């Protein structure tokens, strides 16, 4: 018994015979069908086991407001360490210099044992060559970059911080014909399909 194909299915099969894998958007252009018709046609072909749909997800990152500021000026803790690199400073002077990032910078510097305090004076204990998140900031810069390129631990340190990163998830679909569909001759078959 032969299968009945709708005109939409015929167009999709014909195009997929010439192009092995296509996105729904490219199918729209090549078949001159609407997005809804493409979706329906793909679903019908999947039900008949004539189309295979591969879905993938890619996560991209760009810098948020605080991330851009840190990219331009340095991470808050790096700015703190740079200020006391040569000479110790008072807490009030550091607050004036760092403004709203003073608290987070001090917290991270104390937690990581990079600074010491003697009364009101803050001095440098250890000056790390690189800080968690710095590599990711430099890699992303003012652009957008795929998560797969970024070092996971370095990325994780920035994901914990508010407004440092903007995550953009891109989902893609690729449609291809199954082996059974590749040998079908849909040009000669009568539609017989009901709209």
Characterize the structure shown:
The protein is an alpha+beta fold and 195 residues long. The protein has three domains: 1-50 and 178-195, Arc Repressor Mutant, subunit A (Orthogonal Bundle), CATH 1.10.10; 56-73 and 131-171; 76-129, Winged helix-like DNA-binding domain superfamily/Winged helix DNA-binding domain (Arc Repressor Mutant, subunit A). Helix content is 45%, strand content 20%. The chain has helices spanning 7-18, 24-31, 35-47, 65-73, 76-83, 91-98, 102-111, 134-140, 152-159, 179-182; strands spanning 51-63, 89-90, 115-118, 121-124, 144-146, 165-177. Strands 5-1-6 form a three-stranded antiparallel beta sheet. A hairpin with a 2-residue loop joins β3 and β4. α5 crosses α7 (102-111). The mean pLDDT is 91.
The CATH topology of the largest domain turns out to be Arc Repressor Mutant, subunit A
Number of helices: 10
CATH class of the largest domain: Mainly Alpha
Structural domains: how many: 3
Alpha carbon gap, first and last residue = 21 Å
User: Overall pLDDT, averaged?
Assistant: 91
Strand content: 15-25%
**Coarse morphology:** rod-shaped
Biggest sheet layout: 3 strands, antiparallel
Q: What is the CATH architecture assignment of the largest domain? A: Orthogonal Bundle
Following the backbone from N to C, one meets helices and strands in this order, namely HHHEHHEHHEEHEHEH
- Show unreliable segments: none
Report the C-alpha radius of gyration, rounded: 29 Å
Strand order of the largest sheet: 5-1-6
What is the total tally of β strands?
A: 6
